[in-house]
Design a protein that fits this description.
Elements lengths: L1 H16 L10 H10 L3 E3 L3 E4 L7 E4 L5 E7 L6 H8 L3 E5 L13 E4 L2 E2 L7 E2 L1 H8 L6 E6 L5 H7 L2 H4 L2 E8 L8 H15 L2 E8 L5 E4 L2 E4 L2 E7 L6 E3 L27
Parallel strand pairs: 4-5, 4-9, 5-6, 7-8, 9-10
Antiparallel strand pairs: 1-15, 2-3, 10-14, 11-14, 12-13
Helix pairs in contact: 5-7
Length: about 270
């Protein structure tokens, strides 16, 4: 046993010196159970597409009446989704420290040059602080569309239940999903999903084909997943979605087609 431990430690140290981190692996059953918890449902609210027919367009439930504002952290060079929200009467609050100005203008657009995360400082702001600044003393429903390059997990953890429950519709691009095979990463990200699933249900999943899929132990995981959630009190009837892709789904790029693996929507 001492020889095995010595060999194991030597191997780990060698890999670390090669900038390769070694972590415990997630049990396949735990990963399968997480995927089952994220299985999309079809509801009485049909899905429509907002945004361009390319990257930056998302499928969301057609349930917008009474939504006061859209919060959209992570802007970059595309604002088609946000423009569609603004044209439906929502105020649109956009934040991104990496740009100096929005890619296009609209009378309902409002821009904050900061990143969204779990802290408040010169470069970062939490969703709660942001919402309190721009919409003080309101309790209306909101929409959240978030693509913030991996900061989504800590942002979800720092999100208060009060604000979370105001987001009727949530669209998040989740990054590094293939790292779910690493147990520390799985433990962190699965808790973020559990927090969202306490009040919301998954109504659509679209793999972003800017990434690829990673298959291990017959479990296939896309690296990038765009997941749409609808708050549970807005769902009157539901059933599991049986076919993918949705007719309105479009690849993010023309590089290589990518569809959601069947294990994400079939028992």
């Amino acid at each position: 046993m001492n020889l095995l431990n010595s060999l194991r430690n030597s191997t780990i140290n060698f890999l670390l010196h090669q900038n390769i981190a070694v972590t415990p692996s997630t049990q396949p059953v735990d990963l399968i159970n997480l995927i089952k918890s994220l299985r999309p449902i079809t509801t009485d609210k049909p899905l429509i597409r907002l945004g361009p027919d390319s990257d930056g367009g998302y499928l969301v439930p057609d349930d917008f009446e009474g939504i006061e504002a859209c919060f959209s952290p992570g802007v970059s060079t595309i604002a088609g989704f946000e423009k569609d929200c603004a044209n439906r009467g929502m105020e649109v609050f956009m934040a991104d420290k990496s740009i100096n100005q929005l890619p296009e203008n609209h009378s309902r657009f409002h821009f904050l040059k900061k990143f969204i995360s779990s802290t408040n400082d010169a470069d970062f702001i939490t969703l709660d602080s942001w919402a309190n600044q721009v919409l003080p003393n309101t309790t209306s429903d909101l929409l959240l569309q978030m693509d913030i390059e991996g900061y989504e997990y800590e942002t979800i953890f720092s999100l208060s239940d009060q604000l979370l429950n105001r987001f009727r519709i949530i669209v998040v691009e989740f990054h590094w999903m293939h790292l779910l095979w690493s147990k520390p990463y799985f433990d962190l990200s699965s808790r973020a999903f559990a927090k969202l699933l306490h009040s919301h249900s998954v109504v659509h999943i679209h793999p972003n084909n800017l990434g690829k899929t990673v298959k291990r132990n017959n479990v296939e995981i896309p690296e990038l997943l765009e997941i749409t959630f609808l708050r549970n009190d807005r769902i009157n009837k539901k059933e599991f979605t049986k076919t993918f892709p949705h007719p309105l789904d479009i690849d993010n790029t023309k590089s290589h087609p990518l569809v959601l693996p069947q294990s994400w929507y079939k028992s």
